[in-house]
Each structure stands twice: as C-alpha cells, then as structure tokens.
C-alpha cells in the first residue's frame, strides 16, 4: 500500500457534493476530508468535519472551511457553525465572522404573556 500524497493547501481540491450534503477535499484524487452540512434557503449549517488521519495537520480542514465559507459568501448565505472545528476556525479568522448567523428575536421583552 502506497503512502497518501502530502497535502499542500495549493493542491487540495474542494468541491460541494450536493447529493450527499457535504464538501469533499481531495488530494491527488484521494478523499482526504469532508464537511457535512444542512442547507436551507439563506442558511447553511456545518455540522461535522472529518479529516483522514493521514492528512491531519496538512491544511485539509482549513481548505474545506475556507472554500465552503467563500461559497456561502458568494451565495449570500448565513452560516451556522454547529461543528466545533468550523466555530474554532472562524474565531481565528475574523474576516469570516460576518457570515455567522445570529438570531434576532422579533418579540419585545415586555414581561407579559
């Protein structure tokens, strides 16, 4: 069995596979990581990210997040970072914080029921 290709952020190919609701990262044609999501009109919730152990620490997860968030921005979608990896990545990259979904209550707190 041969060693998997080494990931370089320039060589990570990320694509949205809408049939299975996930972004896939490939290195040298090999599946290196995935980011599962739930999409509704105007909102995409990233729920789970997984990187093959052979590719950990090589930028595959970051490539998944950056690509998917760039696409969300292009589509005008807000992002709900349910996945801790997404939440942590966004907290370290302030340029993407504006994508985060924030629920605005429509009810005034008047104390009555």
Automatic annotation (TrEMBL):
<dbReference type="InterPro" id="IPR000182">
    <property type="entry name" value="GNAT_dom"/>
</dbReference>
<dbReference type="InterPro" id="IPR031165">
    <property type="entry name" value="GNAT_YJDJ"/>
</dbReference>
<feature type="domain" description="N-acetyltransferase">
    <location>
        <begin position="15"/>
        <end position="101"/>
    </location>
</feature>
<dbReference type="InterPro" id="IPR045057">
    <property type="entry name" value="Gcn5-rel_NAT"/>
</dbReference>
<dbReference type="GO" id="GO:0016747">
    <property type="term" value="F:acyltransferase activity, transferring groups other than amino-acyl groups"/>
</dbReference>
<keyword id="KW-0808">Transferase</keyword>
<dbReference type="Pfam" id="PF14542">
    <property type="entry name" value="Acetyltransf_CG"/>
</dbReference>
<feature type="domain" description="N-acetyltransferase">
    <location>
        <begin position="1"/>
        <end position="106"/>
    </location>
</feature>
<protein>
    <submittedName>
        <fullName>N-acetyltransferase</fullName>
    </submittedName>
</protein>
<dbReference type="InterPro" id="IPR016181">
    <property type="entry name" value="Acyl_CoA_acyltransferase"/>
</dbReference>
């Amino acid at each position: 069995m041969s060693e998997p290709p080494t990931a370089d952020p320039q060589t990570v190919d990320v694509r949205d596979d809408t049939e299975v609701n996930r972004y896939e990262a490939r290195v040298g044609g090999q599946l290196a990581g995935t980011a599962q999501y739930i999409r509704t009109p105007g909102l995409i919730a990233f729920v789970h990210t997984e990187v093959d152990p052979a590719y950990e620490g090589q930028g595959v997860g970051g490539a998944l997040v950056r690509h998917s968030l760039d696409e969300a921005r292009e589509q005008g979608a807000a992002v709900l970072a349910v996945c801790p990896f997404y939440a942590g990545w966004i907290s370290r990259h302030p340029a993407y914080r504006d994508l985060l979904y924030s629920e605005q209550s429509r009810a005034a707190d008047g104390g009555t029921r």
